[in-house]
User: Which sequence fits this backbone?
């Protein structure tokens, strides 16, 4: 085979692999959206001064949980940042129809729980720097912090891609909804086989795509 033909064949093969990978991701996303379990969380604007950028609406959905299950490797939990490197969260539904994080573990547990791999998990002490009392010494605060239980702060996917024509209206509605006196907003997700994707944002029960 001539050098030019080899180069062309390599490029075509690389493109085929890339297209197959993109196609699989699209199929996987659509499968989760069509067949996944619907879960809902209260959300807030990711950046109140500019929550909409490009062609997506960005929100913040974080849930805190102190129920950190025993680790499979026998090691103790410690404070660290985890950028989607293996921690899982169990979701449960509350009486009001919204969901919450019931437990965090380094692998899904047996049973009927709905386990996901979140976007990010940050493990820290339940007492934070913002909890320091005005008249509390640094030493006393440090001890109180270290004596407090560990807490996992779980972050969900936060980008909802939208029709660019509808985006300005959705942005304005989200700003108003997450204001202190607003109605509040709910992020809608679908979950399947540990994957979680955002599918909608609702304000007062109405999709932002139909405002």
Assistant:
């Amino acid at each position: 085979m001539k050098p030019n033909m080899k180069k062309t064949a390599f490029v075509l093969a690389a493109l085929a692999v890339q297209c197959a990978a993109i196609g699989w991701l699209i199929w996987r996303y659509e499968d989760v959206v069509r067949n996944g379990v619907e879960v809902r969380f209260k959300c807030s604007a990711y950046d109140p001064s500019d929550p909409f950028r490009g062609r997506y609406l960005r929100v913040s959905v974080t849930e805190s949980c102190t129920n950190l299950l025993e680790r499979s490797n026998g090691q103790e939990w410690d404070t660290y940042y985890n950028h989607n490197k293996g921690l899982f969260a169990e979701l449960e539904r509350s009486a009001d129809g919204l969901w919450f994080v019931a437990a965090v573990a380094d692998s899904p547990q047996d049973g009927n729980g709905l386990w996901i791999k979140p976007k990010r998990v940050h493990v820290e002490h339940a007492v934070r720097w913002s909890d320091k009392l005005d008249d509390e010494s640094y030493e006393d605060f440090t001890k109180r912090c270290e004596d407090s239980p560990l807490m996992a702060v779980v972050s969900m996917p936060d980008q909802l891609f939208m029709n660019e024509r509808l985006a300005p209206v959705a942005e304005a509605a989200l700003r108003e909804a997450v204001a202190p006196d607003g109605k509040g907003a709910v992020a809608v997700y679908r979950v399947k086989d540990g994957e979680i994707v955002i599918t909608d944002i609702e304000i007062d029960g109405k999709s932002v795509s139909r405002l």
